[in-house]
Amino acid sequence: MRLSRKLRLLSAALAPMLALTACSGGSGGGGTGASANEQVKIKVWSWDGTVEGAVAGFQAANPNIKVEVVNAGSSQDEYKALDNAIQAGSGVPDLVMFEYFAVPYFAIPGKLADLGEFGAGKLQQDYVPAAWSDVTVGGKVYALPSDYGPSAMFYNEATLKKAGVDKPPATWDEYYEAAKKVRALGGDHYIAQDTGDIFFLLSLIWQAGGRPFKVDGTKVHIDFTDAGTTKAVAFWQKMLDEGLINTKITGWSDDWNRALNDGSLATQTMGGWLTSTLPERAPKASGDFKVALMPQWEPGTKVGAANGGSSFGIPAAAEHKEAAYKFLEYFAHGKGLSSRVEAGAFVPNLSVLDDKAFRDKESTYFGGQKVGAVLAEASEIVGSGWQYPPFFEWARSIYGDLASPFYTTGKGSLAEILEQWRQRCIQYGNEQGFEVS
């Protein structure tokens, strides 16, 4: 889930962390675990509350392993703290939560243990391919997926019908026509908001077939001129140019909450984790919202993307790797998985997504809709081959800085912003020891 990760990472804070010449705590550091009877205590860094709920069951089945779950703050705070611990050679946790795009940053310089050494490879068949790909670097798996964000369109059915849109837009052309009708309602009515959400824009590019980032070890190539990227960017530019998108409301703000509650924002194209967020943010809209697949670029096709998601990996310098992996497999794949799903986690495990009970469960908030079935399908159609550069945690914060003037003044274009972003990423990546072009 990206809900707790909206804070930006300052460049100055990340610069020393990304340097490949810094101490990496290589794969030979740290202990491997404990014997079957030795009492050990593992420390887990996580912002996912459902993981803590799995502790009691695990400890009951494994009385020699005690688990301490610590919230290390936002993702950016956690990554900084982990790098500091690795460089200091002390205080390294045994298990750490990572957004998918952060896995290569820690894996490439050897800061994560290869989970294949603990038998993780046997679990691959239980995960949607795109999620497994997100935790695989150079053919090795460095984390297990724990939650997932297949992109879907959450739409306020009441608002769309009020605007004369009787069914959810199935294509982006239909979405454009619906946007004009929603805007015609006047006032603050818009089909969506955007103030520079790079994850949303990248999900459009991803779905359209664009693959702007290509990563091969420490070699990174960035190109925002391929056909898919150009198509997606041009479409969203048109939406902005015609005033069909609210550029005043920022996601996760109080104004955003208000607009979701009163129906003035008709849709949200976000990760599947929004199913647990909307009821908290927009309780007054209960029964009005429904979920559909992302609108398609071509009629009759089914292609998706992802927006957010998290995993857990074991630092190479962790003291109790074997015990940590045992807990990881328990809550990410084993008996602890069901308790996390019941607590609201949307997981990429096929054993859950293919389960009839999961697909047939009706959601009160979403007007009795079988939301699980929609999101399970959204997970299955995520386009393959997407990559993030290993310094994306830094890059996403810089994109916001570059995009802000465009969204506040309307001067410039998305294509120009992306080119500026590309140049900054090339400069920064090369300064950090990557080979970026």
Name the features:
437 residues; alpha/beta; D-Maltodextrin-Binding Protein, domain 2; 3-stranded mixed sheet; 14 strands; 41% helix; disordered N terminus; SBP; Bact_solute-bd_prot1; Sugar ABC transporter substrate-binding protein; signal
Instruction: Please give the domain count.
Output: 2
- Provide the CATH architecture of the largest domain: 3-Layer(aba) Sandwich
How much helix is in the residues? 40-55%
The helix-and-strand class reads alpha/beta
**Number of β-strand runs:** 14
CATH fold-level label of the largest domain? D-Maltodextrin-Binding Protein, domain 2
Label the overall shape: globular
| Beta-strand percentage range | 15-25%
The CATH superfamily label of the largest domain reads: Periplasmic binding protein-like II
- Please write the CATH class name of the largest domain: Alpha Beta
Return Rg in Å: 22 Å
Q: Which segments are poorly predicted (pLDDT under 50) over 5 or more consecutive residues? A: 1-30
Largest sheet: 7 strands, mixed
Look at the structure and give the mean pLDDT: 92
Task: Calculate the terminal CA-CA distance, rounded to whole Å.
Answer: 31 Å
InterPro entries: Bact_solute-bd_prot1, SBP
Signal peptide: 1-21
Protein name: Sugar ABC transporter substrate-binding protein
Organism: [Actinomadura] parvosata subsp. kistnae
